[in-house]
Write a structure and sequence with these properties.
globular; Growth Hormone, Chain: A; mainly alpha; 13 helices
């Protein structure tokens, strides 16, 4: 196991904190909705409404807190976000009505969005020469932690008692608090001084915003295996239902084993753009294969679905690595938190609209819907190289402008004297 860990120091501390955090996330992702509907007895419609409101709040929190992390130090801001998330999650045990539930889940999701943005400067500072590769390693750790949390959550769901669900929620909160405590030995990152000009520069960077939108479209793929495939398998195919767990297991194993390797050669924005394009093609192919699993014998449907999961996961590896590279490489060092907070908007919007869109297109409409979704992925992938070149031209022009400014000031100084 030691060979799989980073060297002792900041990277290992971040990885361990991330692992503990994602074990808690796995508990909630697997059984959170069931806790509110089965144990707190909230109507599913109210749970969906509360989660939607909370998701919108988390988008705004990511940008604002990312800026605070740049200005006041990322470690303290990130630890604060984890503590708030832990306290808000513990508040789930008192969510006996819609408004207590909505306030608690809104605070928890806002803290989650804030923490994701505040963590970016830490990864950039302690990630070595290739923070994008370290981010890929953390994603493998994330999948491993979520898988372990899902297994533990399965116990609570199987038991189904009030006490079991309470243990699940409090265990989730304790994991977030422990994740914050593990960061105490981490040396703080010095705040970055603000540059001259507008404060919210990420929101004025149109190429970066365009890439955020494209990545958001691509990020809908994360809900293909967790929402669309399970429903499609049950409604449209004769494949055995236990294959739902099998598809997730295949995806998790491939990501844990291959994400670091897949990120290794994607080390420039141009390489990231190519990876986006490849991932779009892979997602299109996976969607086509999934659509063919309807109307065939059970064994053939199982083979097709597992094959589609493998192809889809390869695309997921490329998509994640491309996002890591481009989001870091095109973000100025003094505004990493702010830029990564903006980049997270794409994934947040995908989280909000992805499940409903996939259900409407792929499950309700059927086979043609899979082709529409696949085409959407491939078009976003094809647009990425053009948008990256636009962003590179903008950054080159900005660098030329900033390098010329001192010489102009220097030339005017003697005249004023």
């Amino acid at each position: 196991m030691a060979s799989l860990l980073p060297a002792p120091g900041a990277q290992r501390t971040l990885a361990l904190s991330n692992f503990v955090y994602t074990v808690g996330s796995g508990l909630y992702l697997t059984a959170g909705v069931l806790y509110f509907t089965e144990d707190r007895h909230l109507p599913a419609s109210q749970v969906g409404l509360g989660l939607g409101i909370a998701g919108l709040l988390s988008l705004a929190a990511g940008v604002a807190v990312g800026h605070l992390a740049d200005r006041y130090g990322a470690r303290g801001v990130y630890m604060g976000a984890l503590v708030v998330q832990a306290l808000a999650t513990a508040g789930f045990v008192r969510a006996d009505g819609f408004w207590p539930f909505a306030m608690a889940v809104a605070a928890a999701m806002a803290a989650k969005g804030a923490g994701n943005a505040a963590r970016g400067p830490l990864i950039r500072h302690y990630g070595g020469d290739r923070p994008q590769a370290f981010r890929g390693y953390l994603r493998a750790v994330t999948n491993l932690g979520i898988s372990l949390g899902a297994v533990l959550a399965g116990w609570a769901v199987q038991v189904g008692t009030h006490d079991a669900y309470q243990v699940l929620v409090l265990g989730n909160a304790l994991a977030f608090m422990a994740s914050a405590a593990l960061l105490l030995p981490l040396p703080p990152v010095a705040p970055r001084p603000a540059s001259d000009g507008p404060r919210w520069i990420a929101l004025r960077d149109r190429p970066y915003l365009a890439l955020t939108l494209l990545d958001g479209v691509m990020a809908i793929q994360f809900r293909v295996l967790t929402v669309a495939v399970p429903l499609w398998l049950v409604v449209a195919t004769t494949a055995p239902h236990w294959l739902i767990s099998g598809t997730m297991l295949v995806n998790t194993v491939i990501v844990v084993a291959c994400q670091v390797h897949a990120s290794r050669n994607i080390d420039t924005p141009t390489a990231g753009a190519v990876a986006y394009r490849r991932s779009g093609v892979a997602f299109l192919l996976a969607c086509v294969i999934i659509s063919l699993s309807a109307g065939v014998p059970a064994w053939a449907a199982a083979v097709l679905l597992l094959s589609a999961v493998v192809v889809h996961t390869i695309g997921e590896l490329w998509h994640s690595a491309a996002g890591f590279e481009i989001s870091f490489a095109l973000a100025p060092p003094h505004a990493t938190g702010q830029y990564l907070g903006v980049f997270g908007l794409g994934a947040g919007l995908a989280e909000a609209v992805g499940p409903t869109s996939l259900i409407s297109l792929c499950v309700t409409w059927g086979r043609p819907g899979w082709y529409v979704v696949g085409a959407l992925f491939v078009l976003a992938g094809l647009a990425a190289p053009l948008t990256v070149r636009w962003a590179q031209r903008r950054h080159a022009d900005s660098a030329i402008t900033s390098s010329e400014t001192p010489s102009v000031e220097g030339a005017s100084a003697p005249t004023s004297g």
